[in-house]
Task: structure prediction
Amino acid sequence: MDLRAKKPLADLEVYGNYIADMRLLWSKDSTLVAYFEPDRRGGTTSIYFRNGSKFEQVEFPQSELGECDGNSKAEGDEKYLKTTEATTSPKQWLKSRALVVVIDESWLTEGGNEHHCSETVTIAFDANHKASVQSVTDKKVD
Result:
């Protein structure tokens, strides 16, 4: 919000009744912000950079990420049935201006078993603010 002009610098979407858990994670220099928007099955992160007097959204590099564990693949005789949680949550901004996010996914298989995958992803930004996956670490599947 530009307090002098009383105008918003960016419009953030809010999903239903989940506003209590929404949050902003600012970079140290306040030129980048990650917005966590909760929903009924987890939540998503949107990334914005300051461009003059406005904030512009950066496309999240989802296409560079594979399945957390390949949950659409068969696991033994059990096939993927449905996703029960999908959360991409901002963790911290690094000094390099890269963003660390934690991805948590849970799903059910036809046999009624629930599986979980979590990984930590570092997202880097080029001079044009294009986001790309820098690294994937701490991958855990059960």
User: Anything to note?
Assistant: The beta strands are 23-26, 32-39, 42-51, 54-58, 80-93, 99-109, 114-125, 131-141. The CA atoms of residues 117 and 141 lie 4 Å apart.
